[in-house]
Amino acid sequence: MKKIIALMGCVIMVTSCVNETQVNNPAFQAKFNDSNWKSQETSLAIGPNGGLIITALRGNEELVLTTSSANPGTYLLGTTNEANFASYSLKSGINTTTYDTGAFPGPAFVTRKLTSGNGYANDDSALTTGGSGSGLVFRITVNSIGAILTDTIKARGANYVTGDVVTVEGGNNNATFRVVNTQQSNGEVVIEKVEDGKYTGSFKLNAVNDSGEVVTFSQGIFYRLPLN
């Protein structure tokens, strides 16, 4: 019994130490192409547009996240709103390779319904027309007048660009969707809370270089980062 009590005491002490570290130490880390990535130096500033600029450095690598506002919320990357932007740079000797979430053609990644249309039927393979690319297919469900209620992407197609508007075939051909971003260039920065001027949130992104090569950051967090 004494051993059990002593063991519980140790667990409580370790838990307390972990919580204290979380409270007192700023952090910035993520998975980079499925490997652990932790910033060695992180700075946070308010940009000219009033949004955040988070700069994270690790050796010869630099990751920069920018948002259109410093308020809590979700900021999508790879869209037509260039105030929400991410870039990753890797230096090798005198050369620097840069990946970013700028507009880049590819399969549609996130889409947004603009009009629900009418006259449609439930369809597991609803084809689309329009935009710069081809092959985007939705699964749709509709209401009693044939307006689209729910949609999921079944096939992402190819060669779409951010901002493309496509029309779902069938019905009265009046349901439209916008391509928000593409598979090579997308993601989000989430500002979860601001306490005492310190910012906590999460991020994930795909960024692409001029050659079409993609790097991925997933499970990203920033914890209690103070303004510099």
Automatic annotation (TrEMBL):
InterPro entries: DUF6252
Pfam families xrefs: DUF6252
Protein name as annotated: Lipoprotein
